[in-house]
Amino acid sequence: MSVVLAGSALAADLAVKAPPVAAPSWTGFYAGVSVGGRWADNDWRTSDIAPAFGAGTFVPTAGTSGPIDSVAARIGGYLGINWQFGPTWVAGLEGDFGWADNNKTASPLPGTAGLFFGTPMVGLPAGSVKDSWDGSVRARLGYLVAPDTLVYGSGGVAWQRVELNANCALVPGNAFCFGNPHNETFGSTRVGWTAGGGIEHMIGGHWIVRADYRYADFGTWTQTFFIPGGVGPGFDDRFTAHVTTRTHTATIGLAYKF
């Protein structure tokens, strides 16, 4: 009986004296993949329609601007480095790259419906805004709400590839395209700023799952369409688009910490 009691006491003593499990360290490099969605918030404003005829010749009847928004699935990848300082704070630097097919068409384009010399225009131009690849470089700062769970904010520089299209046919009457049919596309890699945040959870000391949200603003791109090629002012089909691009991106990701 005494042997049994002694064994039980020894087992209890070992259980009490077992070393505690070490908290995971967040310091180090990591790389991952992400899936989610991107909401493109594009505002298109049209000005300077047929400027050779002078200000006031064209009078818009449906306003000068409007949204050309879209939603698309996004896939991407990211990599970065974390530095854990103190027991609860983590700072880092991260870069990411993604692709989504945000592509929305408007017919007619905002700001192109109106009166030209007092007569309604016909054959109004249609067009689209397309957002494809994007990327960013961001600083991060996070707080460990638990040893394996990080809540963070991020901000930095972002890039977005944007394409603008406008097209119209030559039709009888007071047509928008006075001289020739047109179909033009212009592309630009826009640079802006981004800010957001999210939450990460470490599994097994190496795998990190996350939910992340970011807002990005790429300012306003001004582009003139249908510049006449040596024809007289009677065939001035020009107009200028002012497109403001913003995006909202929400993803979930899985990364490996090296």
Question: What do these coordinates show?
Answer:
The protein has 1 helix and 12 strands, in the order αββββββββββββ. The protein is mainly beta and 258 residues long. The protein has one domain. The strands form 2 sheets. An 8-stranded antiparallel barrel has the order 1-4-5-8-9-10-11-12. Strands 2-6-7 form a 3-stranded antiparallel beta sheet, with no helix packed on it. The chain is rod-shaped and about 90 Å long. The two termini are 52 Å apart.
Q: Which regions have little confidence, pLDDT < 50, spanning 5+ residues?
A: 1-12
Q: Please state the CA-atom Rg, rounded to the nearest Å.
A: 29 Å
**Main sheet makeup:** 8 strands, antiparallel, barrel
Counting H and I runs of at least 4 residues, what is the number of helices? 1
Our measurement of the CA-to-CA distance between the termini, rounded to an integer number of angstroms, reads 52 Å
Strand order of the largest sheet: 1-4-5-8-9-10-11-12
SS-based class: mainly beta
Encode the helix/strand succession as letters. HEEEEEEEEEEEE
Mean pLDDT score, rounded? 91
> In percent, how helical is the residue content?
under 10%
Outline type:
rod-shaped
Keywords: Cell outer membrane, Membrane, Signal
Protein name: Putative outer-membrane immunogenic protein
Family: Belongs to the Omp25/RopB family.
Subcellular location: Cell outer membrane
